[in-house]
Design goal:
Helices cover 39% and strands 16% of the residues. It has 464 residues and is of the alpha+beta class. A 6-stranded mixed sheet has the order 10-9-4-6-5-11. It has helices at 2-7, 12-22, 27-36, 87-106, 168-197, 201-207, 248-261, 299-309, 328-332, 337-349, 382-401, 429-463, and strands spanning 44-54, 59-65, 74-76, 122-127, 209-218, 224-233, 264-266, 275-277, 284-289, 297-298, 372-374, 415-425. A hairpin with an 8-residue loop joins strand 7 (264-266) and strand 8 (275-277). Helix 5 packs across helix 7 (248-261).
Length: 464
């Protein structure tokens, strides 16, 4: 068995558990449950029952219980957005984020935005942190300041040239206040737009709206930066065209001016001096092209880029994706030196700035904001996308059970009584390996279908 386990990339104990699960009498049903979760790596296990009743007659139309399920439990997806926790659920989250961002760029009436938003001024802006000390990098064709030409995957990239002089306290305090910097930016942006339009803020607001969707990303040095789609709309949002004065150039100029105005003061505390936190100088603002007419940044590229980083967090810098209680844990977790020092800075600063909750967010290198956010009128919401998926599955279930569809017959109401209890989460080692393979199969099948779809549409067009 040892040779077989090695060939499959498994240890003997995991292979034994794989054979146990695959040889069980209810393996087919277990597979069906896991496929419905998309191959979730850490499913929630529930025990309980549901009963669907016709309230007018008291007739039981359907009864379900987990007593006959594998292990007496129903498994549902954990829904975690982090790829480090659950690749399957993160993949679904990234897909939802892609459709949310894309709907705000190309328009999608089903998702709350008309196709005419493609004609609105739109930019893709990247806001970075300032320098906290020189780090190893790849400056074009030149060598790093250390004299070495680093490879793309060199582990020292992003780490300080001199860790002893690097401003670790400033770095984590900047991360911790990054959401405040963004909030002030959105306030100043509206003021700068009104100023450039020669209008009062009230008049500018009456004639136009700003919509945005953004995502946070960690640079290799552990500093957060934001990628944002910013769009000019008319007075009623995406359904109305922006006024003639709301041009792409005005928007771009206002973004630069607003970012330069933002300043967040941090008072002195203990051995820490007073600080004024600002955006870094590397602000990049590029127009988004509707049909790639010579523009470098296209709608497809922006949506894909934002979705890619919506499932990543500080673990990309070498830290962990769970809270850390003390410095001793850093040794046990074998956290690399640079993120280790950033985490230690958070733990040390917590007593000086208790209201900032730096200890709770030490594993995030101080950042405590949402990783993806959007303004109310940008497009649809992640909750709405999840609800569409849930409604579709509920309709499939009703059809399979022969239950009435309320959309077809509004008077055909049913009453569902449910009782659920939490029974744990996760997989055994063998189940985990099998679930990962199920997720890979699902992902491969969907990607293959997506690649083949254009060819099928071309064939249908030729036949017509």
């Amino acid at each position: 068995m040892t040779d077989t386990a090695t060939a499959a990339g498994l240890d003997a104990a995991t292979l034994t558990d794989v054979l146990r699960v695959a040889g069980s009498a209810d393996f087919d049903r277990w597979q069906e449950q896991i496929r419905r979760t998309g191959g979730c790596a850490d499913p929630i296990r529930l025990a309980g029952s549901t009963k669907t009743i016709d309230p007018s007659t008291g007739t039981v139309l359907h009864h379900y219980t987990t007593e006959h399920e594998p292990g007496g439990m129903l498994r549902i997806a954990c829904g975690n957005r982090r790829a480090s926790r659950c690749p399957a659920c993160a993949w679904t989250y990234a897909g939802d984020t892609y459709h949310l961002i894309r709907a705000g760029l190309t328009g999608d009436p089903d998702k709350g935005t008309p196709h005419t938003v493609r004609e609105h001024p739109r930019v893709f802006a990247t806001f970075t942190a300032p320098s906290f000390g020189p780090v190893h990098n790849r400056p074009g064709n030149r060598p790093c300041a250390c004299g070495t030409r680093h490879d793309e995957d060199a582990p020292e990239l992003g780490t300080p040239l001199d860790p002893d002089t690097y401003d670790y306290a400033g770095a984590v305090l900047w991360n911790n206040h990054a959401s405040d910097l963004w909030r002030y930016f959105t306030i100043y942006l509206r003021r700068e737009i009104a100023k450039r339009a020669g209008l009062t803020q009230k008049t500018a607001h009456e004639q136009s709206r700003l919509s945005f969707g953004k995502v946070a990303e960690y640079q290799k040095r552990g500093a957060v930066h934001f990628h944002a789609v910013i769009r000019f709309d008319g007075p009623e949002g995406p359904d109305t065209p922006p006024p003639a004065w709301a041009t792409l150039d005005l928007l771009t100029d206002a973004i630069h001016a607003a970012a330069a105005r933002v300043a967040v003061d941090v008072p002195p505390a203990g051995d820490q001096p007073a600080r004024t936190l600002r955006w870094g100088t590397q602000l990049d603002v590029q127009p988004i092209g509707a049909f790639a007419n010579g523009e470098d940044i296209t709608e497809q590229a922006v949506a894909s880029y934002v979705a890619k980083y919506a499932t990543k967090a500080a673990e990309t810098t070498g830290t962990v994706d769970r809270r850390i209680g003390n410095k001793e844990a850093l040794v046990l977790l074998e956290v690399p030196d640079h993120p280790c020092r950033l985490i230690e800075a958070c733990l040390d600063l917590h007593a000086l700035y208790p209201e900032r909750k730096l200890r709770d967010w030490a594993h995030m290198l101080g950042f405590r904001g949402h990783f993806s956010t959007k303004s109310r009128r940008y497009s649809t919401t992640l909750g709405a996308l999840r609800q569409v998926r849930a409604d579709y599955r509920a309709a499939q279930q009703r059809a399979a059970l022969g239950l009435p569809d309320p959309d077809d017959d509004p008077e055909a109401t049913t009453l569902t009584l449910a009782h659920w209890t939490y029974a744990g989460h996760g997989h055994t080692p063998g189940e985990s390996w099998l679930a990962a393979n199920i997720h890979r199969d699902i992902q491969l099948n969907r990607e293959t279908a997506r690649e083949e779809l254009p060819a099928l549409l071309d064939l249908e067009g030729a036949a017509a």
